[in-house]
Amino acid sequence: MISQRYELYTPVEQHTWMLLFERQLKAVEQFAYRNFLTGIQQLNFTALAIPDFDDVNERLRNITGWSIFAVPGLIDNDYFFEKIHQRQFAATTWIRKPENLDYLEEPDMFHDVFGHVPMLTDQYICDYLFGLSAIAKKYMTNEEVIEAIARLYWYTIEFGLVKENDQLKIYGAGILSSIGETSYALSDTPARVPFDVMQIIDTPYIKDSFQKQYFVLDDMQQLKECLPQLSMHFQQAYGNGAV
Hints:
12 helices; alpha/beta; four-stranded mixed beta sheet; globular; two-stranded parallel sheet
Protein backbone atom coordinates (compact mmCIF):
# COMPACT_ATOMS: atom_id res chain seq x y z
CA MET A 1 0.00 0.00 0.00
CA ILE A 2 1.11 3.54 -0.75
CA SER A 3 -0.31 7.02 -0.29
CA GLN A 4 -1.95 9.01 -3.07
CA ARG A 5 0.09 12.17 -2.35
CA TYR A 6 -2.39 14.36 -4.14
CA GLU A 7 -0.17 17.45 -4.04
CA LEU A 8 2.26 15.79 -6.47
CA TYR A 9 -0.16 15.69 -9.40
CA THR A 10 1.09 18.07 -12.09
CA PRO A 11 -1.02 20.47 -14.19
CA VAL A 12 -0.41 18.14 -17.15
CA GLU A 13 -1.81 15.18 -15.20
CA GLN A 14 -4.82 17.20 -14.05
CA HIS A 15 -5.41 18.23 -17.66
CA THR A 16 -5.14 14.61 -18.79
CA TRP A 17 -7.82 13.64 -16.27
CA MET A 18 -10.03 16.46 -17.60
CA LEU A 19 -9.63 15.33 -21.21
CA LEU A 20 -10.31 11.69 -20.36
CA PHE A 21 -13.23 12.45 -18.08
CA GLU A 22 -15.04 14.80 -20.46
CA ARG A 23 -14.56 12.54 -23.45
CA GLN A 24 -15.48 9.32 -21.72
CA LEU A 25 -18.48 10.64 -19.80
CA LYS A 26 -19.92 11.99 -23.06
CA ALA A 27 -19.34 8.59 -24.67
CA VAL A 28 -20.96 6.53 -21.91
CA GLU A 29 -23.76 8.66 -20.48
CA GLN A 30 -26.19 7.15 -23.00
CA PHE A 31 -24.85 3.60 -22.70
CA ALA A 32 -23.72 3.08 -19.09
CA TYR A 33 -26.09 1.26 -16.79
CA ARG A 34 -28.01 3.66 -14.55
CA ASN A 35 -26.16 3.04 -11.28
CA PHE A 36 -22.81 3.95 -12.83
CA LEU A 37 -24.01 7.45 -13.65
CA THR A 38 -25.63 7.72 -10.22
CA GLY A 39 -22.29 6.76 -8.67
CA ILE A 40 -20.47 9.47 -10.62
CA GLN A 41 -22.86 12.00 -9.12
CA GLN A 42 -22.82 10.58 -5.59
CA LEU A 43 -19.02 10.65 -5.48
CA ASN A 44 -18.93 14.17 -6.94
CA PHE A 45 -16.58 13.16 -9.77
CA THR A 46 -15.98 16.01 -12.19
CA ALA A 47 -13.58 16.92 -14.97
CA LEU A 48 -12.19 19.75 -12.88
CA ALA A 49 -9.86 17.67 -10.69
CA ILE A 50 -8.46 14.20 -10.13
CA PRO A 51 -10.48 12.69 -7.27
CA ASP A 52 -8.89 12.83 -3.84
CA PHE A 53 -8.98 9.33 -2.32
CA ASP A 54 -9.72 10.70 1.16
CA ASP A 55 -12.80 12.49 -0.12
CA VAL A 56 -13.85 9.46 -2.17
CA ASN A 57 -13.60 7.22 0.88
CA GLU A 58 -15.65 9.52 3.07
CA ARG A 59 -18.44 9.43 0.51
CA LEU A 60 -18.15 5.71 -0.24
CA ARG A 61 -18.26 4.66 3.41
CA ASN A 62 -21.47 6.62 3.84
CA ILE A 63 -23.06 4.90 0.83
CA THR A 64 -22.01 1.23 0.95
CA GLY A 65 -19.33 0.97 3.64
CA TRP A 66 -16.59 0.31 1.07
CA SER A 67 -13.34 2.22 0.51
CA ILE A 68 -10.43 2.37 -1.90
CA PHE A 69 -6.71 2.19 -1.17
CA ALA A 70 -3.72 3.23 -3.24
CA VAL A 71 -1.41 0.72 -4.94
CA PRO A 72 1.48 1.31 -7.37
CA GLY A 73 0.13 -1.15 -9.96
CA LEU A 74 -1.24 -4.66 -10.36
CA ILE A 75 -1.31 -6.73 -7.16
CA ASP A 76 -1.37 -10.47 -6.45
CA ASN A 77 -4.67 -12.34 -6.42
CA ASP A 78 -4.43 -13.34 -2.76
CA TYR A 79 -3.90 -9.74 -1.63
CA PHE A 80 -6.56 -8.46 -4.01
CA PHE A 81 -9.24 -10.85 -2.75
CA GLU A 82 -8.18 -10.42 0.88
CA LYS A 83 -8.77 -6.68 0.60
CA ILE A 84 -12.03 -7.16 -1.30
CA HIS A 85 -13.18 -9.35 1.57
CA GLN A 86 -12.45 -6.37 3.83
CA ARG A 87 -14.58 -4.23 1.46
CA GLN A 88 -11.55 -2.37 0.16
CA PHE A 89 -10.78 -1.91 -3.54
CA ALA A 90 -7.28 -1.28 -4.92
CA ALA A 91 -6.72 1.76 -7.15
CA THR A 92 -3.55 2.97 -8.80
CA THR A 93 -2.54 6.61 -8.33
CA TRP A 94 -0.65 7.27 -11.58
CA ILE A 95 -2.36 8.53 -14.72
CA ARG A 96 -1.41 7.85 -18.31
CA LYS A 97 0.63 10.24 -20.46
CA PRO A 98 -1.19 12.56 -22.87
CA GLU A 99 0.14 10.54 -25.80
CA ASN A 100 -1.57 7.42 -24.41
CA LEU A 101 -5.10 8.77 -24.09
CA ASP A 102 -6.66 6.10 -26.31
CA TYR A 103 -4.95 2.95 -25.09
CA LEU A 104 -2.92 1.70 -22.16
CA GLU A 105 -2.00 -1.93 -21.54
CA GLU A 106 -1.76 -1.70 -17.74
CA PRO A 107 -4.67 -0.14 -15.84
CA ASP A 108 -4.01 3.40 -14.64
CA MET A 109 -5.87 5.63 -12.21
CA PHE A 110 -8.42 6.72 -14.79
CA HIS A 111 -9.43 3.12 -15.43
CA ASP A 112 -9.51 2.27 -11.72
CA VAL A 113 -11.20 5.41 -10.43
CA PHE A 114 -13.49 6.44 -13.29
CA GLY A 115 -14.27 2.89 -14.37
CA HIS A 116 -14.49 0.94 -11.11
CA VAL A 117 -15.14 3.25 -8.19
CA PRO A 118 -18.62 4.52 -9.18
CA MET A 119 -19.75 0.87 -9.17
CA LEU A 120 -18.77 0.60 -5.50
CA THR A 121 -21.81 2.76 -4.77
CA ASP A 122 -23.98 -0.07 -6.16
CA GLN A 123 -24.97 -2.61 -3.50
CA TYR A 124 -25.46 -5.35 -6.11
CA ILE A 125 -21.85 -4.95 -7.24
CA CYS A 126 -20.54 -4.75 -3.68
CA ASP A 127 -22.39 -7.90 -2.58
CA TYR A 128 -21.13 -9.75 -5.64
CA LEU A 129 -17.51 -8.73 -5.08
CA PHE A 130 -17.67 -9.68 -1.40
CA GLY A 131 -19.22 -13.07 -2.20
CA LEU A 132 -16.68 -13.74 -4.94
CA SER A 133 -13.83 -12.90 -2.55
CA ALA A 134 -15.20 -15.32 0.05
CA ILE A 135 -15.04 -18.16 -2.49
CA ALA A 136 -11.58 -17.09 -3.66
CA LYS A 137 -10.20 -16.99 -0.11
CA LYS A 138 -11.44 -20.53 0.47
CA TYR A 139 -9.52 -21.88 -2.53
CA MET A 140 -6.64 -19.42 -2.70
CA THR A 141 -3.94 -22.05 -3.25
CA ASN A 142 -5.89 -23.79 -6.01
CA GLU A 143 -4.72 -22.27 -9.29
CA GLU A 144 -7.58 -23.72 -11.32
CA VAL A 145 -10.20 -22.17 -9.06
CA ILE A 146 -8.47 -18.78 -8.98
CA GLU A 147 -8.20 -18.80 -12.77
CA ALA A 148 -11.90 -19.60 -13.05
CA ILE A 149 -12.77 -16.77 -10.64
CA ALA A 150 -10.48 -14.41 -12.57
CA ARG A 151 -12.40 -15.23 -15.75
CA LEU A 152 -15.71 -14.55 -14.04
CA TYR A 153 -14.40 -11.25 -12.68
CA TRP A 154 -13.08 -10.34 -16.13
CA TYR A 155 -16.32 -11.00 -17.98
CA THR A 156 -18.44 -9.22 -15.38
CA ILE A 157 -16.70 -6.44 -13.45
CA GLU A 158 -14.31 -5.59 -16.28
CA PHE A 159 -16.30 -6.35 -19.44
CA GLY A 160 -19.92 -6.97 -18.50
CA LEU A 161 -23.10 -5.91 -20.27
CA VAL A 162 -26.62 -5.85 -18.81
CA LYS A 163 -30.16 -5.35 -20.10
CA GLU A 164 -32.04 -2.33 -18.80
CA ASN A 165 -35.57 -1.66 -20.03
CA ASP A 166 -34.88 -3.91 -23.06
CA GLN A 167 -31.78 -1.89 -23.92
CA LEU A 168 -28.18 -3.08 -23.80
CA LYS A 169 -26.10 -1.20 -21.23
CA ILE A 170 -22.47 -1.30 -20.06
CA TYR A 171 -21.38 -1.98 -16.48
CA GLY A 172 -17.86 -3.36 -17.04
CA ALA A 173 -15.11 -0.92 -16.02
CA GLY A 174 -12.82 -2.01 -18.84
CA ILE A 175 -15.44 -0.83 -21.33
CA LEU A 176 -16.61 2.24 -19.43
CA SER A 177 -13.07 3.62 -19.22
CA SER A 178 -12.14 2.90 -22.87
CA ILE A 179 -13.30 5.16 -25.68
CA GLY A 180 -12.63 2.48 -28.27
CA GLU A 181 -14.23 -0.45 -26.49
CA THR A 182 -17.32 1.57 -25.56
CA SER A 183 -18.36 1.81 -29.21
CA TYR A 184 -16.99 -1.62 -30.14
CA ALA A 185 -18.83 -3.53 -27.41
CA LEU A 186 -22.21 -2.24 -28.60
CA SER A 187 -21.46 -2.62 -32.31
CA ASP A 188 -22.40 -5.57 -34.52
CA THR A 189 -18.84 -6.95 -34.49
CA PRO A 190 -18.50 -8.95 -31.22
CA ALA A 191 -20.71 -11.83 -30.13
CA ARG A 192 -23.05 -11.19 -27.23
CA VAL A 193 -24.30 -14.21 -25.33
CA PRO A 194 -26.57 -14.71 -22.30
CA PHE A 195 -24.84 -14.72 -18.93
CA ASP A 196 -23.90 -18.27 -17.93
CA VAL A 197 -21.46 -18.69 -15.06
CA MET A 198 -20.33 -22.18 -16.10
CA GLN A 199 -19.66 -21.07 -19.66
CA ILE A 200 -17.75 -18.03 -18.44
CA ILE A 201 -15.34 -19.97 -16.23
CA ASP A 202 -14.49 -22.12 -19.27
CA THR A 203 -13.81 -19.07 -21.46
CA PRO A 204 -10.24 -17.68 -21.47
CA TYR A 205 -10.08 -13.90 -21.51
CA ILE A 206 -8.26 -11.56 -23.87
CA LYS A 207 -5.88 -8.93 -22.51
CA ASP A 208 -4.26 -7.42 -25.60
CA SER A 209 -7.26 -6.65 -27.82
CA PHE A 210 -10.99 -6.04 -27.69
CA GLN A 211 -13.06 -8.97 -26.47
CA LYS A 212 -14.49 -11.40 -29.01
CA GLN A 213 -17.64 -11.89 -26.96
CA TYR A 214 -19.49 -10.28 -24.08
CA PHE A 215 -21.79 -11.96 -21.58
CA VAL A 216 -25.09 -10.15 -21.00
CA LEU A 217 -26.97 -10.10 -17.69
CA ASP A 218 -30.77 -10.03 -17.68
CA ASP A 219 -30.46 -7.85 -14.56
CA MET A 220 -27.82 -7.02 -11.96
CA GLN A 221 -29.27 -9.46 -9.44
CA GLN A 222 -27.86 -12.32 -11.54
CA LEU A 223 -24.39 -11.49 -10.25
CA LYS A 224 -25.06 -12.37 -6.63
CA GLU A 225 -27.44 -15.17 -7.60
CA CYS A 226 -24.71 -17.00 -9.55
CA LEU A 227 -22.42 -17.36 -6.51
CA PRO A 228 -24.11 -20.40 -4.88
CA GLN A 229 -23.86 -22.28 -8.18
CA LEU A 230 -20.20 -21.35 -8.47
CA SER A 231 -19.46 -22.37 -4.88
CA MET A 232 -21.25 -25.71 -5.32
CA HIS A 233 -19.31 -26.42 -8.49
CA PHE A 234 -15.97 -25.87 -6.74
CA GLN A 235 -17.07 -27.89 -3.73
CA GLN A 236 -18.01 -30.84 -5.89
CA ALA A 237 -14.75 -30.62 -7.83
CA TYR A 238 -12.31 -29.81 -5.03
CA GLY A 239 -14.01 -30.35 -1.68
CA ASN A 240 -14.58 -27.80 1.06
CA GLY A 241 -11.24 -26.02 0.91
CA ALA A 242 -8.04 -25.36 -0.94
CA VAL A 243 -6.03 -28.30 -2.25
